[in-house]
Amino acid sequence: SQKIEQNSEALNIQEGKTATLTCNYTNYSPAYLQWYRQDPGRGPVFLLLIRENEKEKRKERLKVTFDTTLKQSLFHITASQPADSATYLCAPANAGNNRKLIWGLGTSLAVNP
Amino acid sequence: DAGVIQSPRHEVTEMGQEVTLRCKPISGHDYLFWYRQTMMRGLELLIYFNNNVPIDDSGMPEDRFSAKMPNASFSTLKIQPSEPRDSAVYFCASSSQETQETQYFGPGTRLLVL
After folding, report:
1. Is the pLDDT of residue B44 over 70?
2. Do A46 and B55 touch (CB under 8 A)?
3. N-to-C CA span, chain A
């Protein structure tokens, strides 16, 4: 069955460092993959989308890579700030049904001042 | 824009009661999604609509769950009868051809079934 795996352990880093979150998927080939941020008590908020023919996408301090051979996406936050503390969700599209996203459980990131 | 609006924000009910969750998508969006989120299973898609028509309801857990979208600005998710295992946060999200695959989420309804 289709499966999404994100870092199960919470990630704690020092302010100013780069945070790297991992998303691995198995048993399908998504046409694109999205990353969302979720704060406690709120709905997910879209951050970045990367398509299968793109290797890397950037937006300000955020960078996403997509390796279709490894079936993996990496999400980087450079010069991290305490305000970046949140849960980050990976959501590859379901192949053949592009509006249907399959969601990972998320990785909790804590940036310490 | 007000964003996706959901009501109620919190609902506490007793097992066996009917629960109705409501969603107003962003104006002009033609896709609407209902999700359920729990700690153990994460975010699960229950059903989604395009132009008010259900496209994929394969995530609806069982016949106790039903969803409707009578017009472009309103959708309901109903659970009848409710059970304690239905306790979760239910999110509604919307998107459009212009936003492409990006989904905009509401604040969620936190449901507790006793």
Report:
1. yes
2. no
3. 41
Measured distance CA(A111)–CA(B26) in Å, rounded: 33
- The answer to whether residue B2 scores a pLDDT higher than 90 is no
In this structure, what DSSP letter does residue B37 have?
A: E
- List phi, psi (to 5°) of A37: -115, 140
Which residues are paired to A35 by β-bridges?
A48, A90
Q: Which residue of A has its CA nearest to B30?
A: A99
**Phi, psi dihedrals of residue A111, rounded to the nearest 5°:** -105, 120
* Mean pLDDT for the stretch of residues B54-64: 92
Q: Residue B62 pLDDT > 90, yes or no?
A: no
pLDDT band with cut points at 50, 70 and 90 for residue A95 = low
Antiparallel, parallel or unpaired: β B109-113 and B104-105:
unpaired
CA distance B35 to A9: 24
User: In whole angstroms, what is the distance from residue B37 CA to residue A103 CA?
Assistant: 10
How far off is chain A from B15, nearest CA to CA, in Å?
A: 24
Report the chain B residue with the minimal C-alpha distance to residue A31: B101
Token pair 């295992």 is found at: B85
Check residue B61 and give its pLDDT: 87
